[in-house]
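The instructor's notes for this session suggest beginning with a concrete chain rather than abstract definitions. Hand out the sequence below and ask the class to guess, before any prediction is shown, which regions might be ordered.
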Amino acid sequence: MTGGALDKRRETLVRISAALASRDPDGLEGALREGAETGIAGEVEEVILQAYLFLGYPAALDAFGRWREISGQEAGEGVQDDWAAWSDRGKEVCRAVYAGQYAGLRRNVRELHPDMERWMVVEGYGKVLGRPGLDLPTRELCIAALLAVLQAPRQLYSHLRGALNAGASPEDVEAALVVASSLMDSGGAEAAQMVWERVQSRPVELAPNVPGFSR
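After discussion, reveal the predicted structure:
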């Protein structure tokens, strides 16, 4: 696996996301310090916020506590709830990530449980991943790195494709997996590479741009 396409900003954010999944306090501390030194505090906070969808509140809360200490950044104002807007935004963002697989995804999740489908769209993609503080390709690269470290192959496959659909380049994805591999053992890195090879065997289906979320 080769990498190196990510700029410093994206590499740092991907490393933070992967370190969150690794549950390694030293690795996370180093990544958060890098984020503080790089001057991308707002985007670091978006990466921590979205991690709760995959790692739960305890991991996100612990990470925020450490981030506040390291960065010296105080918490800003939160956003007001707007579930109707989040529902509309969630459909747009989810469609951008899944492209031609969007309808099938919703059907499959609905068959597992209808509330899970609704939460996925409204909370996952609308409330959280549709926030304007971080561009969608970077969000997807960060999620892919996190899922690689978690060794969640089915979800990793979806979000590797999602990163490409959202506009990340194959070189970006390769580089994100290299960052994630630095926080895994060789078996985990090989498993992630196998998933990536499967993704590459299928054509990318670029969805229309989502307003406010540049590629």
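Then share the key points. The chain has a mean pLDDT of 92. The CA atoms of residues 107 and 117 lie 8 Å apart.
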